[in-house]
């Protein structure tokens, strides 16, 4: 006959097993073994951002990770405050989507000193010291800009210039604004007939996109092309173009980036001509990386998202299954 294990000893063994499993053993029954993740989001400026927030929240739930979510309303100071509060709350990991690229070294050093792993999601920082974060998961924004420019070069192949372009930039100083501008500029440099006649920020929002496009239309009578760094600014600009009695997609060709549902609908309707995709569905991969980082496992320094491009015909096919 086996002797019964005393209850106290059994409880002790159980604790030992749970501890040995490590903090990252999601779904092992709640309590202190669950991972707590502090996540500082940029804001709610676009359809892309809304889809990204949903993806992160759903994936955390799915993975059994306790999420402390903070919305920075497009302000770096709010993100810095949120990160400091995550340190105080002794979270197991911090993930954030840095609104701009520069100015993070001090706070990231504080996180490092606290021994908390950091994962950058969606946007990059320009810190020279890459040991301040474990990994960066997100798109290659330069490539998105290049694909946009390459489409334009093909579209005007064999035609004489000039081709007058106006550009609606994303949030000033943000990685996607910097990189999309760069990639697009490189691609159109192939032919001097392409001229960017005006370029201004629309802060990635529909309202600002409309406002800035209205100003562009007043100042320039000869706009051929609009390159908007995201769908939402493009959609705002479409309202401005229609308001000025012009036909978006025909009188002014429009290229945007993201491929959220509203953008794809406008593309299918012929109001946008080309979209380079940028996926907001980073949640599941992020949670995997968080678990690994908390366990101290090896993770790659850079995780790239897979993306494609869409023409109006392709948008019509993809729209019924579009999740965001
Ligand atoms: O393209 C834009 C959003 O950082 C990739 O931010 C993201 C960008 C996205 O506001 O719509």
From TrEMBL:
PROSITE patterns this protein is in? PROKAR_LIPOPROTEIN (PS51257)
Q: Taking every annotated instance into account, which residue ranges of this chain make up the domain Periplasmic binding protein?
A: 38-298
Does the entry feature the keyword Signal, yes or no?
A: yes
Keywords annotated in UniProt: Signal
Record's signal peptide: 1-22
Chief subcellular location equals other
The record ties this protein, via Pfam families, to: Peripla_BP_4
InterPro entries (UniProt xref): Peripla_BP_I, SBP_2_dom
Start and end residues of each stretch annotated as Disordered:
305-324
| Location of this chain's protein in the cell | Cell envelope
Q: Can you tell me which family this protein belongs to?
A: Belongs to the bacterial solute-binding protein 2 family.
Q: What is this protein called?
A: ABC transporter substrate-binding protein
Source lineage: Bacteria, Bacillati, Actinomycetota, Actinomycetes, Streptosporangiales
């Amino acid at each position: 006959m086996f002797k019964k294990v005393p209850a106290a000893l059994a409880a002790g063994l159980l604790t030992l097993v749970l501890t040995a499993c490590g903090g990252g053993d999601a779904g092992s029954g709640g309590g202190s073994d669950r991972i707590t993740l502090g996540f500082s989001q940029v804001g709610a400026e676009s359809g892309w951002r809304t889809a990204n927030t949903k993806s992160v929240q759903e994936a955390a739930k799915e993975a059994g990770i306790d999420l402390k979510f903070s919305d920075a309303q497009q302000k770096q100071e709010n993100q810095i405050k949120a990160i400091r509060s995550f340190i105080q709350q002794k979270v197991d990991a911090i993930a954030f989507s840095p609104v701009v690229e520069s100015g993070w070294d001090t706070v990231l050093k504080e996180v490092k000193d606290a021994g908390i792993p950091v994962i950058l999601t969606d946007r990059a920082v320009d810190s020279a010291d890459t040991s301040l974060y474990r990994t960066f998961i997100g798109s290659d924004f330069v490539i998105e800009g290049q694909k946009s420019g390459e489409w334009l070069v093909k579209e005007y192949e064999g035609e004489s210039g000039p081709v007058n372009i106006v550009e609606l930039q994303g949030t000033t100083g943000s990685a996607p604004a910097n990189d999309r501008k760069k990639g697009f500029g490189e691609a159109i440099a192939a032919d001097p007939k392409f001229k960017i006649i005006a370029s201004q920020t629309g802060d990635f929002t529909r309202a600002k996109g409309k406002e800035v496009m209205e100003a562009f239309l007043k100042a320039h009578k000869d706009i051929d092309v609009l390159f908007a760094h995201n769908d939402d600014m493009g959609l705002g600009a479409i309202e401005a173009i229609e308001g000025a009695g012009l036909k978006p997609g025909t009188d002014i060709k429009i290229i945007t980036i993201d491929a959220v549902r509203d953008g794809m609908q406008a593309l299918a309707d012929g109001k946008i001509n080309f979209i380079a995709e940028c996926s907001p569905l980073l949640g599941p991969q992020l949670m995997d990386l968080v678990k690994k980082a908390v366990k101290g496992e090896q993770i790659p320094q850079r995780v790239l998202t897979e993306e494609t491009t869409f023409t109006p015909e392709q948008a019509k096919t993809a729209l019924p299954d579009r999740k965001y």
